[in-house]
């Protein structure tokens, strides 16, 4: 992975995790899209429904939701079924079908594209942190 792609992934992932974070007793939490368990904001991961290998949806807001480490890394095979089911309810079965049908659509990102994604999501992340009262990390 190139340096610019790593940076794009980093800021995008932070943005997605802060996007759905909710506060409870001074701590921020996310709910895992697959198993539904609550997890601390910084322990949550950015889980992709259509895998990151499919560039077309790698930075798609509808395709990326907070996921726990166990579902994302250990049981990614099984957890994807729960992911799909919960995504059907969260967005809509039509959108889920669209994500699946278009997964192989051509997409090529240049170094400049990655740099733009990184700076865009860095700003969005920092703004969202400020709005929610979260200390950026
Ligand atoms: Zn989980």
Written overview of the protein:
The longest helix is centred in the C-terminal third of the chain and has 22 residues, at 111-132. Strands 1-2-3 form a 3-stranded antiparallel β-sheet, with no helix packed on it. Strands 4-5 form a two-stranded antiparallel ribbon. It contains 5 helices and 5 strands, in the order H-E-E-E-E-E-H-H-H-H. 50% of the residues lie in helices and 14% in strands. It has one domain (3-120). It has 137 residues and is of the alpha+beta class. It has helices at 3-19, 69-74, 76-90, 93-101, 111-132, and strands at 22-24, 27-31, 38-40, 45-48, 64-67. A hairpin with a 2-residue loop joins strand 1 (22-24) and strand 2 (27-31). It binds zinc ion.
Which features does this protein show?
137 residues, alpha+beta, three-stranded antiparallel β-sheet, two-stranded antiparallel sheet, 50% helix, 14% strand, binds zinc ion
State the share of residues found in helices, binned by percent: 40-55%
* Uncertain ranges: none
Question: What is the average of the pLDDT values?
Answer: 97
Number of helices: 5
What are the secondary-structure elements, in order, as H or E? HEEEEEHHHH
Structural class by SSE content = alpha+beta
Radius of gyration: 15 Å
Beta-strand proportion: 5-15%
- Number of DSSP E strands: 5
Largest sheet: 3 strands, antiparallel
Net shape: globular
- Quaternary assembly: single chain
Our count of domains comes out at: 1
Q: Report how far the terminal alpha carbons are from each other.
A: 22 Å
Hetero groups in this structure are: zinc ion
What spatial order of strands do you see in the largest sheet?
Answer: 1-2-3
